[in-house]
């Protein structure tokens, strides 16, 4: 349990105080999602809820990457301060 909370807070810390490169931010969002999925897997939650959460996380990741590509093509940069 301590490992999952450490992973969550580490991802949360780097998400807010880390680099502002958009791929790094998306990576840390996925680390946050991975820690929540791991916590849900080892707790007693139904499999349906776990699969639904994973489905939403995958959709969120693909949507984030598509927005990143779209903004990068239109603005020409991949840092958040350049938008």
TrEMBL record:
Q: Which UniProt keywords apply?
A: Membrane, Mitochondrion, Transmembrane, Transmembrane helix
Going by the entry's taxonomy, the superkingdom of the source organism is recorded as Eukaryota
Q: Where are the transmembrane segments?
A: 12-41, 47-69
Q: What is this protein called?
A: NADH dehydrogenase subunit 4L
Organism, scientific name: Aleuroglyphus ovatus
């Amino acid at each position: 349990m301590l490992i999952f909370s450490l992973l969550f807070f580490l991802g949360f810390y780097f998400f807010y105080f880390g680099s502002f490169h958009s791929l790094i931010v998306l990576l840390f969002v996925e680390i946050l999602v991975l820690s929540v999925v791991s916590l849900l897997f080892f707790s007693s939650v139904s499999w349906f809820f776990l699969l639904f959460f994973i489905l939403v996380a995958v959709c969120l990741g693909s949507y984030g990457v598509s927005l990143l590509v779209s903004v990068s093509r239109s603005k020409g940069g991949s840092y958040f301060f350049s938008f």
